[in-house]
Specification:
Blueprint: E1 4-9, E2 23-26, E3 34-37, E4 43-46, H1 49-57, E5 60-62
Antiparallel strand pairs: 1-4, 1-5, 2-3
């Protein structure tokens, strides 16, 4: 399987405001088997020949993702919570 990378388009919107398609490729190496990039958001794709060609042409740029991108959720039990204090007053007595 090809290496997965994160890329985004460098293409500017057209006169009508629509973003041009920077990449459309069907390849089983891509997540979901397809890569479609027509906006400036980051996309996870496989480093296929088509992706490499667009990186070389400058149509796509590789985005550096920090090692801890929040993909590993923290279990609720691992989150520390303050201790619960007992009430300081005794409840009222009913007559």
């Amino acid at each position: 399987m090809d290496e997965l990378i994160v890329v985004r388009s460098t293409l500017a919107p057209g006169a009508d405001g629509a973003m041009p398609v920077a990449l459309f490729e069907r390849d089983p190496a891509h997540p979901g088997g397809e890569a479609f990039i027509a906006d400036d958001r980051p996309h996870r794709v496989a480093r296929t020949a088509a992706v490499a060609a667009r990186l070389a042409a400058g149509t796509l740029v590789e985005v550096v993702v920090p090692p801890d991108d929040g993909a590993t959720p923290v279990a609720p039990a691992a989150i520390a919570s303050p201790p619960v204090e007992a009430p300081t007053r005794s409840p009222r007595r009913r007559r």
